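Researcher: Going back to the complex we discussed earlier. I've cleaned up the inputs and rechecked each line, so this should be the final set. Can you rerun the prediction on the complete assembly and write out the structure?
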Amino acid sequence: MGIDLSLIWAVIIGFGVMMYVVMDGFDLGIGILFPFVKSEGERNVMMNTVAPVWDGNETWLVLGGAALFGAFPLAYAVVLSALYLPLIFMLLGLIFRGVAFEFRFKAKAAKRHIWDKAFIGGSLTATFFQGVALGAYIDGFEVVDRVYVGGSLGWLTPFSLFCGLALIAAYALLGCTWLIMKTNGRLQQQMHDMARPLVFVLLGVTGIVSIWTPLAHTDIAERWFSLPNIFWFMPVPVLVLLCTWALLRAVARNANYMPFLLTLTLIFLGYSGLGISLWPNIIPPSISIWEAAAPPQSQGFILVGALFIIPFILMYTAWSYYVFRGKVTEEDGYH
Amino acid sequence: MFGLEALDLARIQFAFTISFHIVFPAITIGLASYLAVLEGMWLKTGQEVYRDLYHFWAKIFAVNFGMGVVSGLVMAYQFGTNWSAFSDFAGAVTGPLLTYEVLTAFFLEAGFLGVMLFGWNRVGPGLHFFSTVMVAVGTLISTFWILASNSWMHTPQGFEIIDGRVIPVDWFAVVFNPSFPYRLAHMATAAFLSTAFFVGASAAWHLLRGRDNPAIRKMLSMAMWMALIVAPIQAVIGDFHGLNTLKYQPAKIAAIEGHWENHGDEPTPLILFGWPDMEREETRFKVEIPALGSLILTHSLDKQVPALKEFAKEDRPNSTIVFWTFRIMVGLGMLMILTGLWGLWARARGTLFQSRPLLHLAVWMGPSGIIALLAGWYTTEIGRQPWVVYGLMRTADASSGHSFAQMSLTLVLFVVVYFALFGAGIGYMLRLVRKGPVTDEGKEVAEGGPGQKRTPSRPLSAADEGLEDGHTDSLDERN
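Model: Rerun complete. Updated structure for the full complex:
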């Protein structure tokens, strides 16, 4: 069969994870920014900007997990067991925040602060451990005979912890620029004021991660600085700088949509940098998508369903964002 | 601690998270079909009571669906995090089946759930009914996939083993493995019964408090018909399922019966009660009826039922547990049949809505379906031990091998978080139930969902009731 099913599935899962990062990124970011906004009314607006869509955003996370199991069971087994604690913490954070999201609207005013705290705590926990998991993924896994042997705290490195913090900065900026786009008045102004320092923080942590990654991982360094790869990779940092510059300008002129779109571009660039650094390995540092693949009869079997259903989910997603386009004010109640 | 090892903790963790999770999908399956019937009856008869009930249960359905999605998040990851050796060994078969289950569930959410929950005023009655039916069918398709996966682990076929791993050869054989039809029928019917008793208990609770309207009466009446007709059917399905298990997993049957050895040619007795002791290899304090075991399980008086001692010690499931979980399930099933018969008798005498003893029984039977369902799952899952994929992989070889410390930490976290959050969720559902169906509820449905007006279509936003009494906060008013 001439079709490379593993490649197709790697693209589908890669796409799904990116959809997740982009979409759940800004709604986790709102939880991270919650402590900086004190007014009850403005907090409601923040929630309401994502209320219609947040649960759909997490769809991609479940889909990613299930598709990984179906298409690359070895990667599912090794990566998930190696990242046991950070993933469990992340999932618990997400559950907490999901339930808090719903019940905050239904709680009495006097008790709402409990759900607020659960929302903030859940968002921070989920984001931090997602970043830690990402960092540990870049660090790679020690595998012998298809089994992870790196120990229960193998994920715990200074690099992975730093990635946790970096992701908090990234999601905070996504949330911040999302709110610039979706709100107006005092809340939007406050977000405008926060955007600039957040951009610098993100630029700083991105720089550190970019320098740290090749220093700590010789195989990635080799990949980056060898010919012809360096030409493939070169545009990424240049584009990041360009994008950051445009983002600062957009914030300075109080633009509505550009800051969010440019932040999305930044996230996308970071994601593609990650892809270039790891491709085609699905279990870094050395197990490729083809080695971790399920047999073609399994990958082919689920491809039928995926090709039918994923476009449907995409249409639905696009449609719900379209319905809820525009600014959200305190009069809107989307709960 | 308590002689537990990391593996035991991994099993407890799986049992805990899936037990919490399964309750929500079971009610989702049952309520979805119930709602489809209600809407169908409303369209057919035009009686407003059906429409009012539809809107009342749709809200509870929505909250329940939301809880199912959130608790399902963990399940999609748990096979990899906790059972990586299993995922690598059998992932080529169970992975795609799980993928299909998730795809079906999201297809539903993306497609029809929004219309069903929020489209009452926005689409025509035909399209709305179609959406409800699709949601009901979809929950059953989701069940189909996950039970195919589970059943394959009990009675694997349609595969070969290459390089120490399972490779699917024939998907049709994989999906329609020998125990699958029985398990699917048994589980789907259990979901219907759980829902019927939940609905019946809600109605009885209101009637006992003097709240009486046509919708509440209709709820009770429908639930009692379900109990009368479906509970006996479930017993028959269960019997077939048992015979299937006898054929493919005889050790499980021996453990369920607490039956240690056959003597000569004498037919196997049925032990009603007793205490199977795994160490002493006997069932202590037993009360038994001669030959009844053979009669029930082989439908004859000369054949014998396999005994536990015929299996090596390391291949025996824990009889102490499954002996009792099975009896809890069967006992509750019998009570359900009894409730149905009593309901029929009261109906014939015209006292269905007045008989306080019957109403009290109906309230107490409210959780019976769920408890029986859990007990049944414990029986089948503990009864297939020590295998995770029957005859192919032992549970002890399936885990990720996390340390005792890690497993205890995460287990404690799961227990705390689940009880706090899903406790709140279940509490909220019961609160909606306590409010009861209101006459003409359907005439003033909340605006929302798909359509021009910008309103959300998240499941939980379909329920607009506050978490506590005396709720007057303006923030909670819908626009």
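Model: Worth noting: The mean pLDDT of chain A is 87.
Researcher: Good, that matches what I expected from the previous run.
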